Amino acid sequence: MPAGLLRRLGAVLYDGLLLVAVLMVTTALFLPFTGGRALDPQERPVLEWVYRATLLLVTVAFFGVFWTRRGQTLGMASWRLRIEREDGGALTWGDTVRRLAAAVLSWLPFGLGYLWILIDPQRRAWHDRLSGTRILVMPRAPRR
Fold first, then answer.
1. In angstroms, rounded to a whole number, what is the distance separating the alpha carbons of residues 4 and 68?
2. What is the pLDDT of residues 44-64, one digit of tens each?
3. In a 10 Å sphere around its CB, with 0-12 CB exposed, 13-18 middle and 19+ buried, how is residue 81 labelled?
4. Which tens digit of pLDDT belongs to each residue from 73-83?
5. DSSP string, the chain
6. Would you tell me how many other CB atoms lie within 10 Å of the CB of residue 41?
7. Is the dihedral angle over the CA atoms 117, 18, 28, 65 positive or is it negative?
């Protein structure tokens, strides 16, 4: 069954909190190079570029590791969601990059790409369509 908007936004919130924590740790690793101060692009432009590229790579790795191996992030697992390609297969790293880039497009116009789920017959957001992926609700595990 395709996932609805609220369930997906719940997973986005969970994963967002986890990702922020991971990015904070990544940022802390740069502090020895700045003397414990915030990066100043005027002072260290190359280090600023390396820092931003590192944050981008960590973000792609965060989603890519989960999506390519398990088909779900920790937030998605909490909300019983799974991501797959349109053909039912697991995502590749290329799919991951396409989906993340397309998700930016979904958020930019005030989240209209996400709100599209409310009118789409298959409950797909813009980035689902652009990346050839879909989010499904997993059945509840049987109780013991």
1. 22
2. 889 999 999 999 999 999 999
3. buried
4. 999 999 999 99
5. -B--HHHHHHHHHHHHHHHHHHHHHHHHHHHHHHTTS---TTT-HHHHHHHHHHHHHHHHHHHHHHHHHTSS-HHHHHTTEEEEETTSPPP-HHHHHHHHHHHHHHHTTTTHHHHGGGT-TT---HHHHHHTEEEEEPPPPPP-
6. 12
7. negative
